[in-house]
Amino acid sequence: MLSDPLQQYLMIGVAAFVAGYLVAMLGRVVSNRAKKEREDPRDHRIRALEADLRLAERQASEYDTQTSNAQTHQEEALAKMTELQAALVEADAELQKLKQDLKTSCEKTVELRQELTDRAEQTIRGRAQLDDLKTELEVAKAGTDAVVDEINRLNQESEDRSEKVKRPKKLVTDK
Question: Is residue 28 part of a domain?
């Protein structure tokens, strides 16, 4: 059959290859059966639960991050609210102070108006008295002028009579 040693080796190599292939195939079939027989159905459940656990841990980590962010925002909001409350208290105090100042200013304004009214009334009365005094002074001056004129007239008459008295004697002697 095969006379050549090279051909014999070649045939032995091919036969070994085929035999190895068949053994490998047989091993795979036997191995799959063994795996199927050895594989516990709970393994799938365990792998599914592990996947769910990883997903839950990832979600929990995200929720923790969201919670810490929310807490940070809440703390910031509380700090801002505290600041705003303090500012509101200050504004209320300032408002009360301004209301008190306004009330005091209004009271002073009323007092000053009353004083101004009193002074205006006194000024009007003073002017009326001044006008009355001017009138009396003018009347008194007119009376004084009349008296002076009368005195001057009487003095003049007296002088004229004195001269007449002195002149007629001269006239009598002349006649």
Answer: no
Total domains present in the chain: 1
Distance CA 167, CA 157 (A): 15
Range of the domain at 89: 40-174
> Read out DSSP for 138-153?
HHHHHHHHHHHHHHHH
Q: Are 8 and 2 in contact (CB under 8 A)?
A: yes
Q: Is 29 exposed, middle or buried (0-12, 13-18, 19+ CB in 10 A)?
A: exposed
- How do residues 19-58 score in pLDDT, each as one tens digit? 999 999 988 887 776 566 666 778 788 889 999 999 999 9
Q: What is the pTM of this model?
A: 0.40
Query: Is 34 inside any structural domain?
Result: no
Q: Does residue 27 form part of some domain? A: no
How far apart are alpha carbons 73 and 14 in whole angstroms? 77
